[in-house]
Amino acid sequence: MQQAQTLRGRLILSHHLPALVLPVLIQYPSMGRSPCCDEKGLKKGPWTPEEDHKLMNYIQKHGHGSWRALPELAGLNRCGKSCRLRWTNYLRPDIKRGKFSKDEEQTILQLHSILGNKWSAIAKNLPGRTDNEIKNFWNTHLRKKLIQMGIDPMTHRPRTDFFAALPQLIALANLHQLIEQQQWDGHTTMLQTEMVHAANHQYMLQSAASIAPNPTTTSSLNSLTTDLEQISLLNPQHMLSPTLLESTGSEDVSRQVPHNIMQSTFFDQPDSNINLSSDKNVSSSEQCHVEGGSSRQKSLFLSETSLPPLTDMSASNPCNVISTSKCVASSTLSPSWSEILLDEELMREFE
DNA sequence: AAGCGACGCAACCGCCGAGAC
DNA sequence: TGTCTCGGCGGTTGCGTCGCT
Q1: Which of A13, A243, A322, A329 is a plausible cystine mate for A212, CB 3.0–4.6 Å?
Q2: Is the C-beta atom of A80 closer than 7 angstroms to strand B?
Q3: GO cellular-component terms in the record (predicted)?
């Protein structure tokens, strides 16, 4: 019954609304979340053709003005925010709908490699497309496409994290095994506490490093570094990797691992004779096979093992937080796929 | 034909910055 | 300076559709 009424409304409206809006109305009434009750009694959920008609009529006659005041003036039982969203993402007459062209797709890919998830900024370069539409297109199509091509959708560079993460995975497996064996009961609690601290510090460093260097962030980083050094001083056996300390401020921080975790895990035992990798396929630089050796050797070994985060940390994408020029500059380290594959002219526009 | 999972996308949520007071 | 309002933005949700078994 309700469906029949909606359908009727759809057919009647189809004679009155601009041609651009008609394809939109075909999709009623199914999309979006199910309505839920609001404390103020305002309606939520999918918009009906009647509501759209009211909103369009009002804005075409009076402009939107104050979005907060609009619903009452237009006779809508919606919040202003909902009206604004509906207008900007759906009803605006200049919205271009339908499939994205190859050109649009390439533009999105290139702009995303430069700007990151700045959908509104990307949308400004694609007339008629909304940020929401571009975001959806990215999440449902382009992102998957890049992943299938073996390209990290956030960095736009070939993914290497799995192989680079192998030593870390192996280390974690060993850590688990060691804790279960409880060979060093007294150390376990302390170690776990330190692991939490180290993880926190790593996270803070990653966040700080993703911000463009300036006096404030530099001092913060120095403070963090000092903090990390203090941890290692309190626990000399948990030496920190020089690369971790030196890399504050570079995007490579996100690829470091709390080395005090690694080292305390592997070497606190009286007889550290731990075979961390029996996999012959792992390259020599990634092998974690350590038998005895001096502490200097052990330290060197670990400091040279650069490890990525196991999760896809969007925060580590410099393009999410820093300026375009910084991103382009960082892209000179190694060419991103878009620099190789896509239109050079467009790339130059953003350099 | 029915069941089921993946997909697509409109709409909501929560946060943030700008501006007014 | 602090608070409030408003608009904008990015992330997430949830439901209908589609395609496969």
Answers
A1: A322
A2: no
A3: nucleus
